[in-house]
Amino acid sequence: RVVSQLTARRGLTKNTSLCNLSSLTNSQINGLVDCLEQPESLSTAHAVQEQHSHDESYHPSALPGAVIWPTSTQEVSRVVRYCNQQSIPVLPFGTGTGLEGGVTAVQGGVVLNLTKMADIVEVNVGDADCLVEPGVTRTMLNTHLRDTGLWFPVDPGADASLCGMAATSASGTNAVRYGTMRENVINLEVVLPNGDIIHTAGPKARARKTSAGYNLTNLLVGSEGTLGVITKARLRLHGQPAWVKSAVCSFPTVHEAAAAAMETMMYNIPIARMELLDSMAIRATNAHAGLHNPEQPHLFFEFHGFSEDSLQEQVAMVQDIAQDNGGSNFLFADKAEERSKLWQARHNAWYACLALKPGCRGYSTDVCVPISKLPEMVDYANEEIQRLGLVAPIVGHVGDGNFHCICAFMDDELEQVKALANSLSIRAIQLEGTCTGEHGVGLGKRAMLQTELGDSTLQAMKLIKEAWDPNNILNPTKVLL
């Protein structure tokens, strides 16, 4: 009935449409449409399936049976409840900017594209918090907040959806001062696998702290869509800094740059951003953007202060630390335009590194170690890159011990890229760190959880998944093997 109407509208024959439905039957499609306010909110078009079959990672694409654009929490609830009854996989989808295959429909099913739920429901300026729907991105929120004196500082690089960032516990360049998503989510509205709607900290709660019951908020943050569909997020906001200054300096080796980063943190300097680019990354960004930075490892800094004096005190201390570690060629910027130009190398690093090998694919590793172990970890990464013969410049948020090797590779180098990712993950775990600081587990790092967490902890996670999602419909095959 409805399938015929949908396919006729799109100029498809019934058979053409059915070949794109993967594991969904006509009856199931009709049942899903009955859950929706508008039948047009569901699509089985092959182009739409393909668009929602992958993220930005190297993991193989997998077509979903259908894509749905819900417009309300109640609509999400009805769809999820029906899918649970029918044992149809459900995959929440934000902007598709993930890097570990977290949205790939390995078992088919239904993708919930949440971008049409894009309201900034409320902003409480006096309490510095806001409530957003899952289609709201970081840039959308900060544009809305521009005249309030507040901002949301968690910046993963891509203009990702905020609820998607919560689902992966994303962070980025400002995390060293303002924390990751885990520290900036106050409350979540979540649709459970059975269709129930819960608020992880209570229906109206937005207090800055609580000791009431289990911490379900942080259970859902980083769960990657495997425990529930996040339909609203209450976020912590921060005051826009009154004084901002950026700086960049070069170092003889990446080890010395990492050592300077470590000492900066040890002295408890409230640095806002501290980013590392190795010499290959600098060479790539120079060529890509027409810059003229010395082809040596660089640290990029940003300082936030409440007065000019407080800012200058931070700058002087960091400059002394950098010089003690061989840092030189300091450049400073105060005005917004000048700061943007100074940071251009870091902002363009991904595309610049991929331009080193025209026609290549890209993958980014994501290890994170205690800050005291950072120089050792970076040295090991350099050795492994050379051993495997890869083009993989190092960039990273070194203020919290997290860095990435941006692998520019051709198809016949994929096994070397996987070998690098596995080797770095194992070494990071040996150094009391983690295989993923901010990208999440998805498909790519499931095997590493056994090494990192151990059997008992992994079994506890599986028990939680089984209790919350006994039919295993939410983002199956992700996070846990």
List the helices and strands and how they pair.
Blueprint: H1 2-9, H2 14-18, H3 26-34, E1 42-43, H4 46-51, E2 66-68, H5 73-86, E3 90-93, E4 110-113, E5 120-124, E6 129-132, H6 138-145, E7 150-151, H7 162-168, H8 175-178, H9 181-184, E8 185-191, E9 197-199, H10 216-220, E10 229-236, E11 238-239, E12 243-250, H11 254-266, E13 273-277, H12 279-289, E14 298-305, H13 308-324, E15 328-333, H14 336-342, H15 344-347, H16 349-354, E16 361-364, H17 374-388, E17 394-397, E18 402-409, H18 414-430, H19 446-453, H20 455-468
Parallel strand pairs: 2-4, 3-4
Antiparallel strand pairs: 1-2, 5-6, 6-10, 7-11, 8-9, 8-10, 12-14, 12-15, 13-14, 13-17, 16-18, 17-18
Helix pairs in contact: 11-13, 11-17, 17-18
Structure description:
It is built from 20 helices and 18 strands. With 481 residues, the chain is α+β, with helices and mostly antiparallel strands. It is globular. It starts with a helix and ends in a 13-residue tail after the last helix. The relative contact order is 0.11.
